[in-house]
Amino acid sequence: MLTFLPEILTSGELQIGLLGLVGGFCIFLGGRLFIDQIKIFWQNLFKLQLSDPYQKLIKPNEGLITVVSIIGIIETITVIFPKNQWTNSFEIITSLILAIAASWLASQLFKNFFDFYLLNAAFKSGQKISSELLILFKWLANLIIVFLAILIYAQTHQINVFGLLASLGIGGLAVAFAAQKTLEQVLGGIVLYLDRPFVIDDYIGLPDGTFGRVESIGLRSTRIRTSGKGTLVIVPNSSLTQVNIENFTGAKKLMSILYLKFFRVISSEERALIRQVIINSSNDIFGIDSRNTEVTFKNINSLADVEITQAQVAFFILGTGDVSMELRRQLLDLATQSITQYLKEYGIAFEIEEPTIYVDSPITI
């Protein structure tokens, strides 16, 4: 029967048939490989979703990442379209929105990275940790993100940023010579804002005997309501940057009360060890008054009517601004994790009763 094939099929048709078979076989293999790669990709993606960086960095910002991705796709489509007046205007607006959204996303990712990783690394370094320096580092990082977003946007739209800054610098010199005293006071206000030796409602004392409550901090001057007479003293900011300021509100302490419940009665030797571990864990945190850390023990009956030991730990967080106070609370949480790890190494099992109680400690003026 094969002898009749040349009469039915030409050599060209046979070649096409063979090529079709080979092509189909290649498509089949390629499809199988593609499907296998898709499966591997989804498995890796599922593992990534369970990983620690994904849960701490990506998952809290999934909505913002989606928005930035959609804006990026719209921006790409706008660039592909033929150029005209309408598309150019739309592209400029879209690029500006993309730059703002991307810089906000970068800021949020850095915030999560700072809270979950950098704070932990700074705490584990074993050195005294200044919360003010950490806040300054966080502020500078956000400033760099904004600067890079402006620079990239300007470069992609042919805007000469450096020429603009140079022009502003020449004009700024002229303004500086014309309003030297006013500019000095404004710079003093910026220094007070960054350094924060006091904030509104703080009670402060100055070397000239002025004592009172800060009512407002402006660009040029600070208003202080004096105690007793009730008069309003207006002090130039440039003067406040050059004198010693006594902040009485800074003496305020926030007491953090933590309860540890052990699963058995703790001996006196173990109590001494627990007390030493707790004090050592808070020594390296700048802003925690470890000298006044209090640890008290008492025996109680559990729900199963078994006698166990409970410890009350009182940490004293020195008063500063709200942002710095929140940062010190985070550092205190890291210290609590360190205490848990150390005591487990000594075979002392316990659980932390929730929630942690925060109490304002009164100050004496």
Description:
The chain has 365 residues and is of the alpha+beta class. α5 runs antiparallel to α6 (131-156) and α10 (268-283) runs antiparallel to α11. The protein contains eleven helices and nine strands. The termini are far apart. Residues 1-5 have low confidence and may be disordered. The protein folds into three domains: 53-163; 182-249, Roll (SH3 type barrels); 252-361, EIF_2_alpha (Alpha-Beta Plaits, 2-Layer Sandwich). It is 59% helix and 18% strand.
Looking at the structure, what is the overall shape? Answer: flat
**Radius of gyration (Å):** 33 Å
Largest sheet: 5 strands, antiparallel
Give the termini separation.
115 Å
Number of helices: 11
Biggest sheet: strands side by side, in what order? 4-3-2-1-5
Helix content: 55-70%
Q: Which stretches of 5+ consecutive residues score pLDDT under 50? A: 1-5
Number of strands: 9
What's the helix and strand layout?
Layout: H1 5-8, H2 11-50, H3 52-58, H4 62-80, H5 85-124, H6 131-156, H7 161-178, H8 180-195, E1 203-205, E2 211-217, E3 221-226, E4 232-236, H9 237-240, E5 246-247, E6 253-262, H10 268-283, E7 294-301, E8 307-318, H11 322-345, E9 350-361
Antiparallel strand pairs: 1-2, 1-5, 2-3, 3-4, 6-8, 6-9, 7-8
Helix pairs in contact: 4-5, 5-6, 5-11, 10-11
